[in-house]
Amino acid sequence: VSPVCSTPTVRCFPKQAKQVALNVLEALRVQCGGSSSTNALIKRTAKLTQVSERTLYKWTTETLKAGRVLSPKKRVGGRGRDRTKKLDDFDLSVLRRVVHTFFQRGEIPTIAKVVAHFEEDDTLPTVSAATMQRMLKKLGFRYKKRSRNAMLIEATHIVQCRRRYLRQIAELRRQGRPIFFTDETWVNAGHTRSRVWTDCTIQSAHQAHRSGLSTGVQNPSGKGGRLIVTHCGSEQGFVEGAAEVFRAKKNSGDYHDEMNGEHYENWFSRRLLPLLPPGSVIVMDNAPYHSLKQDKVPRMNSLKKDIQAWLSGKGVAWSSGMVKAELMQLVSSVNTGGERYRVDCIAEAAGHLVVRLPPYHCQLNPIELVWSDVKGFVASQNKTFKLQDVEPLVWQGITQVTVEKWKNYVQHIISEEDVMRKLDHIIDDVVDQGPAIVVNLEDDTTSSAEFSCDEDDEMIEPV
């Protein structure tokens, strides 16, 4: 009998390998006719198949319970795991800013330096070099190699989006249009300060009781339930009456999973827009629920009946004998004028304009600083870690953000915009210093050695 696997270090066997090993075990059982013990049969099967005895016992038990051979469970870790969820949008924007800051100092950034920066900052999570590479890829950076030096550069479309936004927002300010910023955030029931002063001389509750002291501030048992907060504001402060706070129904790692397009559009059209002055500009990011298409153009993966219905709605004739490829040819001949977002159309109908932030540039939205204030207030006041007590704290935290704070935050964002305008030119100059070969991070065949974190061999550069 051929071994199932020649290397006993394999951690995950495919279903077929399990079936072969169990077939061998059953064949030995029939051959022995009940004269050998199960333990002896398992040992003999382990020698023949190179599968450990413990694993064979496990497979036998699970097969008896399930009545069939089970496929291996999907790995939680590995390449398929989304480690970038370890960072929220604000952390990702900080990562982009950290990379750009190296260029402002005239210093070539490396992955090792960026990882070290995250480790030194107590407010940021610690991440490995491999995870840092994945996050940079998510932010639109590419790996660029020049002689024996390498760098990560920002994807062209990210730079184009940023430049377009910076020009547009500057022109709208020049026109004197009222500009409002909107966004969503979340607050957990267990939200509290991560660092507090602690009396390290108190070693136990008994010692604290005898000394007439305490063991310190109570810690939450977990994150608990979650509140989703939506609001809008400007240099004049929050838009009074626009706030919405509701309880999340599911505890996923991303609050974006809880909001949906219908819910957001209802808040946007019925609560926010009636409160804005005529001709307002509303700045938002490209979250999925902000970005539902008004008239979604069919794709090749669309259902055939949906493509046919879309063509009929456009007054385009088609025949039942056409296949999808032919129908899509008709779709491409229709001048749609470009796909538009439903939220943008709702705002336009009310006399307003929606402006989209560049991807992963939430540092250009002052409401992110506002959320930091609100959540900081909740963290300082949260004592019970119960959702019914945290919700009033959120409302109180909102009232703590004054008009003066809003003005300061908006001015800070304007300064950030000015820095980015200049920085893009600086990075162009650095990249142009020598010939370069671009290596796409999407290419899974690229050798891992090319992504070494040796500071002498690697640089990180946004373009």
UniProtKB/TrEMBL annotation:
The keyword Nuclease applies. Gene3D superfamilies: Ribonuclease H-like superfamily/Ribonuclease H. Keywords: Endonuclease, Hydrolase, Nuclease. InterPro entries: RNaseH_sf, Tc1-like_DDE_dom. It comes from the Eukaryota. One of its GO terms (molecular function) is nucleic acid binding. Residues 256-380 form the Tc1-like transposase DDE domain. Pfam families: DDE_3. PANTHER family: DUF4371 DOMAIN-CONTAINING PROTEIN, PROTEIN CBG22215. This is Putative dde superfamily endonuclease.
